[in-house]
Amino acid sequence: MTNAAPRPLAQRRRDTEHRLSHDVDVWVATASEDGTPYLVPLSFDWDDEALLVATPTNSPTGKNLAASRTVRVALGETRDVSMIEGDVDVIEIDGLPQEQGDRFAARTGFDPRTLTTSYRWFRISPRRIQAWREADELSGRELLREGHWLG
Fold first, then answer.
1. How far apart are CA 26 and CA 18, in angstroms?
2. Quick one: 1 exposed, middle or buried, by C-beta within 10 A (0-12, 13-18, 19+)?
3. Which run of H or of E encompasses 107?
4. Domain 29-145 in CATH 3.80.30.20
5. 9-16 LR contacts (CB < 8 Å, sep 24+)
6. Residue 127: in which H helix or E strand, if any?
7. Contact present, 88 and 69 (Cβ < 8 Å)
8. What are phi and psi of 69, to 5 degrees?
9. Contact criterion met (CB below 8 Å) for 73 and 63
10. Who contacts 81 (Cβ-Cβ below 8 Å, separation ≥6)?
11. Residues 6+ apart with CB under 8 A from 25
């Protein structure tokens, strides 16, 4: 529990944007067609509009993302979290521009293009973003709605 006062919307947005620009890993939550949940950490890159992740085509996460085209992502710690709900574009591993793949590899230290396992890229466009630290920040936690920043 922190002793700090609740952050205003503008500060929460700055903190979330900083995390998106500086963190490397997120928790990715998906569900199968029969509703079986799946949670996995993945490295990501943020281009100021969307998150880019890569995972094996035939992994539970890869299959779930391709089938549902929706995802929920958690960024940060449990007492300082940003939750992102987004729409997913599926991109074949050789379908991403070279410079975007290079940027992902440089940022994450991981290059799925070099592996023999079949990978895909998944571009996550945020539809909704929420951020909070403690219960006193639950009110006003929504930062982005319908793909547009609030405030």
1. 14
2. exposed
3. helix 98-108
4. no
5. 9/140, 9/143, 9/150, 9/151, 10/151, 12/131, 12/132, 12/137, 12/140, 12/141, 12/143, 13/131, 13/143, 13/149, 13/151, 15/80, 15/82, 15/131, 16/75, 16/82, 16/129, 16/131, 16/143
6. strand 119-132
7. yes
8. 60, 20
9. no
10. 74, 75, 131, 132, 133
11. 41, 42, 43, 44
- Rounded CA separation 57/117 (Å): 8
Tokens linked to 112? 């799925």
pTM of the model: 0.93
Q: Per residue of the chain (151 residues), give pLDDT as tens.
A: 556 789 999 999 999 999 999 999 999 999 999 999 999 999 999 999 999 999 999 999 999 999 999 999 999 998 999 999 999 999 999 999 999 999 999 999 999 999 999 999 999 999 999 999 989 889 889 999 999 999 7
Burial of 133 (0-12, 13-18, 19+ CB in 10 A): buried
